[in-house]
Amino acid sequence: MKYLLLVLIALFFVSCSSAKYSVTKEPEGKSIIKGVLSWEDWQEEAGWSSYASVGYTPNKSITKDIAEYVISKNLSFVIFAGSWCGDSETELPKIYKLLTLAGVFNDRIELWGVDREKLEPSGNAEFFKIEKVPTVIVMTGEKEIGRVVEMPKTSWDSDIMEIIRNYVFK
After folding, report:
1. Which domains, ranges and CATH numbers included, belong to the chain?
2. What Cα–Cα distance (Å) separates residue 142 from each residue in 59, 136, 137?
């Protein structure tokens, strides 16, 4: 009985620590991250030369408004990106700079890595019909209220705030 209890405890800890993402290498050396992970894990795994968002400074007023609505309207963000993708490499650091400055914590962000076919094991990329990366989806509960696909029209802060305004003032 003690042995069985020890085995069950060990299995519990192994299942709790198991990765929710995988990383493979393409022949030319690029990392392919598939699954859900934190921004910190992404930075360890992606193999990019920089994770800085030099040249992008979110508008302070807009950032403050985003912060306010994220809390008051219980908003969250689902982000799909490709570690192999040049647009993800330049835009994902900007997205995280904005969300960090807005005080959006990891509990309100899901970051999903997808392969070149825009797929990952859980099927979430298919569910959300991801065609290009990065894609930022603004959510309230289980409902999508809008998305920015690949590149913002104006800027990440302006485009995300426009989605929020359209939801709040509809």
Report:
1. 23-168 (3.40.30.10)
2. 28, 15, 11
Parts of the chain with a pLDDT under 70: 1-19
Report helix, strand or coil for 119. Answer: coil
List % helix, strand, coil for the chain (3-state, nearest 5).
40, 20, 35
Q: For the full predicted model, state whether its pTM sits above 0.90.
A: no
Strands 31-37 and 21-25: antiparallel
pLDDT in tens, 86-130: 999 999 999 999 999 999 999 999 999 999 999 999 999 999 999
Residue keyed to tokens 């993800």 = 88
1 Cβ contact partners less than 8 Å away, ≥ 6 residues apart: none
